[in-house]
Amino acid sequence: MHGRDGPVDEALELAYRTDRGRVLACLIGIVKDFDLAEDALQDAFAAAAATWTQNGIPVNPAGWLVTTARRKVVDRLRRAAAAERRHRVWGELSIAWDAGEGTGPIADDRLRLIFTCCHPALSLEARVALTLRSLGGLTTEEVARAFLTSAPALAQRIVRAKRKIRQAGIAYRVPTPDELPERLDAVLTVIYLIFNAGYLAASGTELVRVDLCDEALRLAGLVVDLLPGEPEPLGLAALLHFQDSRRSARVDGAGHPLTLEEQDRGRWDKGKANAGFALLDRAQGMGATGPHQLKAAIGALHTGAPSAGLTDWATIVLLYDRLLEWEPTPIVHLNRAVAVAMADAPEAGLAILDDADLSAELDVYHLFHSTRADLLRRSGRLDEAAMAYRRARSLTDNTVEQSFLGRRLDELDRSADDPTPTVNR
What we know:
With 425 residues, the chain is an all-alpha fold.
């Protein structure tokens, strides 16, 4: 988006980050075809780059994109000479931008499409990957990072999911109220990964993508309202509130990241923290435990500790043990290793991280290497720590994170005191 008018660049960037998911959700709901909707939206953004520069930025950029994308859909169908489908879609394209609001069990455009995309005929991984890429506002690279895989491999996974939808004739419709629970796990995973992608941005010059964090919090709240009798949405909402309560304390005045130990807990958002405790109490009162509640319970122990030194790491280890029964994933093993190191000794955490299978699965994950570097440094193995920090720095495109890891390398040279592992930011 370079080489044009500055305000237009900014408006296009803002529209892409804040409106793309909702606009795409509207288009997919109309044409029932992922690829066609995505292509039309891309055409609309290309048209916006030229038209907004010449005629000015519209008052309602999202509405402009929807209207233009609808026209682009018709143009593509004309070129494809799909007469029968063209006439059907033409009539549907006259639907107003907000016509879907308030209809069916799910009033929100994006949440309705997330539930629709999380079809149980697809594997959980395929559902989550497809929905994150199409509706979550994440790039292919960001989704690949969430799955600890490469962007080309992730792209192929999404292509296969779309192909299965077409070949199997999977009905593209909003689920009925009775069908919502069977899609809930995938929906909650999508929202959780949207938040994670915002909490530590994979690239750019900012530590946090506020738009993704705010959208995940909004969606989690909508799911709580939609399914008030389900404990896991409450657990997820609690977890996100605990995490987000630290937002303003995660960087210093110069924008440098701060570890959990370094943060001024007086700057944590008490309103969000208290909301998290209330949500977790409601979830636990329902008597059914799930993975999001366990993660929220871990978050509650961090949030409730008056200082980093008074954190109940032993209980956190036990909660991770229970979480592994639900999610025996490399990331959970990584986070448990940190808890073990803090409850016991750095060497105990390193013994977990140096497992050949775990280290192979996490080799492309920069937080694995930065965490291992911190434990190595606290163990006095400074040369190995430096190698691990360099490996971590090479795996992130976020300039703030690169700078943070560079300062850790400088501190190694000065034999500085060791902080809490970076994974706990």
